[in-house]
Design goal:
The chain is of the alpha/beta class and about 350 residues long. It has two domains: about 1-220 and about 330-350, 3-Layer(aba) Sandwich (Rossmann fold), CATH 3.40.50; about 225-325, Rossmann fold (3-Layer(aba) Sandwich). Helices cover about 40% and strands about 20% of the residues. It is built from twelve helices and 16 strands. The chain has helices spanning about 1-25, 50-65, 90-95, 95-105, 115-125, 195-205, 230, 250-260, 275-290, 300-305, 315, 330-350; strands at about 30-35, 40-45, 70-75, 85, 110-115, 135, 145, 150-155, 185, 210-220, 225, 240-245, 265-270, 295-300, 320-325, 325-330. Strands 4-5-3-6-2-8-9-10-16 form a nine-stranded mixed beta sheet, with helices on both faces. Strand 12, helix 8 (about 250-260) and strand 13 form a beta-alpha-beta unit.
C-alpha cells in the first residue's frame, strides 16, 4: 500500500488542492441560502457511510412531530436527466436505487431527483408549497447551496481524519472540508462503545466549538421475501444462503449474514451495480452448489430495488430472494440531543409562518 500511495500522491495532491480552492471560492459569499429549512446529509468519503438510513431516520422524526418533509437526491446512477418526482412505478435506472427505496418505504413523503439542488428545491416548493423542510441526500459537495443544517457522516471503522484523498484513499476532498458541518455523526458504531474508544474518536475528530458529534449504529430487521419463491419458504427452514450485494461498504451486511448461517457464499459487486442476466446466472449457480436444503439468496434493500427492475423480473422471480431492512439508531446518550437540534431548527421556520 505504501508504494501505491507514493505513486498516486501527486494526483491526490492536485485533486485535493482543486477541491480546497473550490470550497473556499464558494464559502466567500457565493453560496445560496434558501428561505425554507434545508437539511443536508453527506460525507467526505466515496459512499458507504449510511446516508440513506440516516435520511430515513430524519423522515420518521419529522413525521412523528407533524412536519411535512420531502427528499431531494441527485439520483446517482440514473439514466435520465433533469428534475423529476419519484413514484412507485419508477425504475432504479430512471431515478436511482436510493430515491426509489425511499419512495417505496415512505409513501407519505415526496421524493425528487435533480443534479442541480437549487433548481430542484425551487421546483419542489413551486409544486408543493406545503412542504416544511427538504432533506438533501448526498449534497455535501454541492456547494452552490448552503443548507440550514449540514450533517457529515463518517464510518466508525473508517474515520475521515485517518483517510486520504482519492486516488490514494477514499476521500472526495480534504479533511478541512469537515469544518463546514454543523453536525458530525459517527455511523455504524458498535451497540456498546468502550468509553476509551469513544474518547479516542472524539479527540481525532476534534470538533470545532459550534459542532456537535453524535454516534449511531445499524439495527437489522427481519429477512423479508422479495420474490414469490421466497414467500414459499418458512424462515425457520432456511439453513444456508448466498449473500449478494452491490454497496460501498458491505462488511456490516456480510457479517450479519455470516452470523446467521453456518454455510454462506457471497457475491460482492461494485457500488450501485446494475445487475445483468449473467449476474443472475452466477447467483443461481452459487445457490445450486450449496449442499443444504432451502438455500436462499439474501440481499440488501438497495440491491433489492435494482434486482426488481423489469428487465430481469422473470429471471429474478425464479429465485428465493430475501432482503434485510435496516434502521439507524442513536446511542441513548446522543439521541435526545440530535433530535432536539433538528426539531429546534425546523420549528423556527414554522413559528415564523
Amino acid at each position: 500500500m505504501g508504494m501505491f500511495r507514493f505513486i498516486f500522491f501527486p494526483f491526490s495532491a492536485i485533486w485535493g488542492t482543486f477541491m480546497y480552492i473550490r470550497r473556499s471560492f464558494y464559502n466567500k459569499g457565493r453560496r445560496i441560502t434558501y428561505h425554507k429549512p434545508t437539511v443536508c446529509v453527506g460525507n467526505l468519503c466515496m459512499g458507504g457511510s449510511g446516508k440513506t438510513p440516516h435520511i430515513e431516520y430524519l423522515i420518521r422524526l419529522l413525521e412523528e412531530n407533524h412536519f411535512i418533509s420531502a427528499v431531494l437526491s441527485r439520483g446517482y446512477g440514473r439514466k435520465t436527466k433533469g428534475f423529476r418526482f419519484v413514484d412507485s412505478s419508477s425504475s432504479s435506472k430512471e431515478v436511482g436505487d436510493e430515491p426509489l427505496l425511499l419512495c417505496k418505504k415512505h409513501t407519505s413523503i415526496s421524493v425528487a431527483v435533480c443534479k442541480n439542488r437549487v433548481e430542484g428545491l425551487n421546483k419542489i416548493y413551486e409544486k408543493l408549497p406545503e412542504i416544511n423542510v427538504v432533506l438533501l441526500d448526498d449534497a455535501y459537495q454541492h456547494l452552490l447551496l448552503k443548507p440550514g443544517i449540514s450533517i457529515l457522516l463518517t464510518d466508525y471503522y473508517h474515520i475521515y481524519v485517518e483517510d486520504f484523498i482519492f486516488p490514494v484513499g477514499n476521500l472526495r476532498e480534504g479533511k478541512s472540508a469537515a469544518k463546514d458541518a454543523d453536525i458530525i455523526i459517527v455511523t455504524k458504531s458498535p451497540r456498546l462503545i468502550p468509553t476509551i474508544e469513544e474518547r479516542i474518536i472524539l479527540n481525532k475528530i476534534n470538533p470545532l466549538p459550534f459542532q456537535k458529534v453524535y454516534f449511531s449504529y445499524i439495527e437489522f430487521g427481519m429477512m423479508t421475501p422479495l420474490t414469490p419463491k421466497a414467500k414459499e419458504i418458512p424462515l425457520e427452514d432456511i439453513r444456508s444462503a448466498v449473500a449478494v450485494c452491490g454497496i460501498a461498504n458491505p462488511y456490516p451486511f456480510l457479517d450479519y449474514v455470516k452470523n446467521i448461517f453456518k454455510e454462506k457464499q457471497q457475491l460482492v459487486f461494485s457500488d450501485h451495480h446494475q445487475f445483468t442476466e449473467k449476474d443472475i446466472q452466477e447467483i443461481r449457480h452459487c445457490r445450486e452448489r450449496s449442499m443444504q436444503k432451502n438455500c436462499v439468496v439474501i440481499t440488501t434493500e438497495k440491491d433489492a430495488m435494482r434486482l426488481s427492475d423489469g428487465k430481469l423480473k422473470k429471471e429474478v422471480e425464479e429465485l428465493p430472494i430475501f432482503y434485510i431492512p435496516i434502521k439507524v439508531k442513536f446511542h441513548q446518550k446522543y439521541q435526545e440531543g440530535f433530535e432536539e437540534q433538528i426539531l429546534k431548527y425546523v420549528s423556527k421556520d414554522k413559528e415564523r409562518s
